[in-house]
Structure formats: structure tokens, C-alpha cells
Amino acid sequence: MLSLLYQEGPSTKGIFRRSGSAKTFKELKEKLDSGTEVDLAHESIFVTASLFKDFLRNIPGSILSSQLCDKWMSVLDQGNNEEKIKSIQRLIEHLPRANVVLLRYIFGVLHGIEMRSEENQMNAFNLAVCIAPSLLWPPVSSTPDIESEFIKKISSLVQFLIENCCRIFGDEITSLFGEI
Fold first, then answer.
1. What residue spans of 63-164 are helical by DSSP H?
2. Residue pair 72/91 in contact by the 8 Å Cβ criterion
3. Distance between CA atoms of 128 and 113, rounded to whole angstroms?
4. How far is CA 152 from CA 44, 75, 85, 147, in A?
5. What is the pTM of this model?
6. Is residue 178 pLDDT above 80, yes or no?
7. N or C: which end of the chain has fewer CB within 10 A?
8. CA–CA dist 120, 114 (Å, integer)
9. 1-174 carries CATH number 1.20.1440.80
């Protein structure tokens, strides 16, 4: 999924914003959940993006770890960008290795899409609004007002992560997929 999103996302207007066919999504999700091999290359990239967001939402405790939720939420309250980046890097060290590897690939894809935002209309802000709720959620449910405020904060954090991903994850993030 990430490889397809890396290839097609940068040239796809509204990637992660538009959803594909609900019927196709449901059928493919059932196949994937049952362990059936699926060739997504022949499907709409919007269905693939929807499947990927669904996959992220189903990671127990979220990829950024709901246990660290308060710490993630306070990152942007810290001093300058350098301090924020250092704080993010320290939080990443507390995540399981599999989460960190997946995050690097996710932000490699998001960076590639954002670099062509003139073409696809998905700048860091737009990407963050679409993907942030799939990356982190509070450990306990709350009122709609608190949830709305939380989504704004996590979106701002993800926007910062996208805009600074090379400094956070390293410059090699731009070549994780090699020459596809």
C-alpha cells in the first residue's frame, strides 16, 4: 500500500481526502483481513489510501502510542523548532521498533506527496487533517468538544512532523523506497 501511495500519491489530486468506492473498500478489506492475497495495483489509489488509513486506525493503542498521548500533545507547546524536534525524537525512542519503521515509511510517503502539493493540492496542513486522526487517539474516549480540540492539536503536530520529517527521521527518508 505504501509503495503504491508513494508512486501515485504525489500526482493524485486530493489523495487521502477523497475516498474510493465503499463497496470495493469493503470487499478488499474482507479479503485482506482473511489473509487472501490482493493486488492493489489494479484498484483506485483512493481505495488504497482508505485501506491504509483503516489499517492505521486498527493498530492497537495507535502507531504513536496512546500511552504517550499527553507527551505528544505537549510537544508543540515547547520552545523553538529545534526543541520540538528533539522532544519528538525522544518520544520516538519510546515507541516499538515496528512502529518507528512504519512511521518512517509513512512520513516518506507524506513528504513525497507534500513536495508536489501544487499538483495534488495536498500540502502539509491538508495531509495532516486527513491522516492525523489515524495516527494517534486518546487512551479514553471523551466529549465531542474535547475530541474536536484533540484532533486540531494532533493535526498541528502531524503537520509539524511532515514539514520537519527530514530533520526528525533523517534525510534518507526521501529515498526509503529507492527507485521505483
1. 69-74, 81-92, 97-115, 117-120, 124-135, 144-163
2. yes
3. 12
4. 29, 14, 19, 9
5. 0.92
6. no
7. C
8. 8
9. no
Write the DSSP string, 9-36.
GGGSTTTTTS---HHHHHHHHHHHHHT-
Distance between CA atoms of residues 90 and 47, nearest Å: 34
The pLDDT tens digits for 81-103 are 999 999 999 999 999 999 999 99
Cβ atoms of 135 and 57 within 8 Å: the answer is no
Mean pLDDT of 96-125: 96
Instruction: Name the nearest CA neighbour of 139 among 55, 70, 59.
Output: 70
Please indicate whether residue 130 or residue 171 has the higher confidence score (pLDDT): 130
Q: How many CB atoms lie within 10 A of CB 159?
A: 21
Domain ranges within the chain, ordered by starting residue: 1-174
